[in-house]
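Quick sanity check, DUF4288 domain-containing protein:
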Amino acid sequence: MTWYTAHLAFAIHPREAPAGEIYVCEDVFLLQAADRDAASSAALRLAEEYTGSDDNLAALDGRPVAMQFLGVRKIVAIVNAGPDRDQLPPSSGTELTSTFFKVKSLESARRLAAGAAVEVELVK
């Protein structure tokens, strides 16, 4: 069995009025599955459990919010070093996931890395 990360996207908006700007949250979950299709199926089951739990509801600007599952953005296979890499659980130093963005300049990239707001295009 192989380890995967599942990137699940959720909309978070005021319960009473979901129109207008909303927050989008991407949570990354660790899964072990026989193949990518099985990991995708497990991710969908996990998302259903996650959004069905009242534990995940909170308040935003003092108003109760709702969480809506938007979809599985991507499934990433985790690759450990060594001959038994699919059998070993992830350990310290294992790359779990990656995301690629496009920005307008190296300065924008530096600002993004520092946590500043910049315009980005999500590539993958």
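Posting the structure with no commentary besides this: The longest strand covers residues 63-77.
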